[in-house]
Amino acid sequence: MLLQLQTIKFLYGCAVNAFMLKPKWLTDSISEGHILPPEKYMAVKKCVGKLCVSVESLVKSNSHSPIFDNLGIMLHGEKNFCTDMAKIIKHGGGQVFKTLLELVQNRDDEKIVTGVIVTENERSASRHLKHCASEGKIPITSAYWIIRSLHLGKLLPLKEKTKSCKLPTLKLPNFPDTLGLSQEI
Question: How far apart are CA 26 and CA 36, in angstroms?
Fold first, then answer.
């Protein structure tokens, strides 16, 4: 089931805020002779906070802003990954940039509120890309962040990674006259 929830079609449906129903809903509706309420057949429940929203209330109040609204993303990975994710992000209201320079310029010009670099595999980002991103204060995250955000129906906060390499400190004993000792040796 997890792989089905990560297909491009499914993620696209999440991005456009479509109701994804299990196939059983259609067969049960046909056998009943009328359209059954879709709540118990939903593949992913639409939740706001801890409260799950019913289908009728979502249809009546269609004031949903896109999930990636005011978000600029630079994708880093293989061509197929970038193409598929770009479609999902654009239909979810986000902007996709091909270069880091474009992302930074649009953020600085306030055309987007937040800029993020999304990688196919977080470990595949080069040291140079990580350095440039940290200079521009642009977070780097994996595609899993997009997938989780789409499944939950809201943009998840970006976790700041503090990869500070703390070297063990070596405390040297204080000698009264270290300079004198070195001259004798």
Answer: 8
> What's the predicted TM-score (pTM) here?
0.69
For residue range 91-141, what is the model confidence (pLDDT) as tens digits?
Answer: 999 999 999 999 999 999 999 999 999 998 878 888 999 999 999 899 999
Q: In what order do the strands lie in the sheet with 95-97?
A: 95-97, 71-76, 114-119, 140-142
For 83-163, strand residue ranges (E) read 95-97, 114-119, 140-142
Mean pLDDT of 8-25: 85
- Closest residue by Cα to residue 11 from 116, 98, 118: 118
Other residues' Cβ atoms within 10 Å of the Cβ of residue 93: 17
DSSP state of 143: H
**CATH 3.40.50.10190 domain residues, the chain:** 71-152
Tokens 């986000």: give the residue.
94
Residue with the two structure tokens 């989780």: 148
> Among candidates 92, 79, 104, which has minimal Cα distance to 145?
92
CATH class of 71-152: alpha beta
The CA–CA distances, whole Å, from 32 to 41, 72, 118 equal 15, 46, 45
Distance (Å, whole) CA 71 – CA 111: 9
- How many Cα neighbours within 13 Å face the side chain of 4? 7
